[in-house]
Write a structure and sequence with these properties.
single chain; about 200 residues; mainly alpha; minor pseudopilin epsh fold; three-stranded antiparallel beta sheet; 3 strands
Length: about 200
């Protein structure tokens, strides 16, 4: 199989109480797994059978005949990236090069955190909130459904999943509380700095 389900970079219990083990069991073990399985079914026997995810995404974006393939492959990529954007005892103000960039663009961390949270809160329906590099510019953006910055030549630095399956078991309809908790307690700034380089 060209596409595989990666292990979580921590135990299912490691992000509690912000994200429960039960949520991760469903989110990683069912939703992410299904996107992987569906992507593999859709690429079987095609010229993309052995392609990497970014190639599959870029070759299927905007092609109505490949909408299912784009949606599933992009969701595999987004979720794999999302798991790495978090770690136990993460969050809060960053350090390193990304801290300097955030200060340069937003003035201070609190303003940045509020804008990132707002991007997730105001994403209508399912989607993602992102911190991306657009050339040398650092900006916050959001995408609907499975869409990903990878498809639009932007470099993702950080994402937060705002599909209901990311938070509903723990937060019900309180998406803003979920976003605030992830930002304050889980962001893996080491991963963000690695992407920023």
């Amino acid at each position: 199989m060209a596409v595989t389900l990666p292990d979580l970079p921590y135990s299912k219990e490691a992000l509690a109480p912000v994200i429960s083990a039960k949520t991760l069991e469903f989110h990683h073990g069912k939703h992410h797994k299904t996107y992987v399985e569906t992507t593999n079914k859709l690429i079987a026997g095609t010229d993309m059978e052995n392609a990497d995810l970014e190639t599959i995404i870029k070759k299927s974006v905007g092609d109505q005949a490949k909408t299912g393939l784009f949606n599933n492959s992009a969701q595999v990529w987004n979720h794999t990236f999302f798991w790495n954007c978090m770690k136990p005892n993460g969050g809060g103000a960053p350090n390193g090069p990304i801290a300097d960039k955030i200060k340069e663009v937003w003035g201070d961390y609190r303003k940045f955190a509020e804008e990132l949270k707002n991007a997730g809160v105001t994403q209508f329906g399912s989607g993602w909130a992102w911190l991306v590099l657009d050339g040398r510019d650092c900006k916050i953006t959001k995408t609907a459904n499975a869409d990903t910055p990878v498809a639009h030549n932007l470099k993702p630095l950080l994402t937060i999943d705002v599909w209901e399956h990311a938070y509903y078991l723990d937060y019900q309809n309180r998406r803003a509380d979920f976003l605030a908790a992830v930002i304050e307690k889980l962001i893996n700034w080491d991963f963000v700095n690695a992407n920023f380089k």
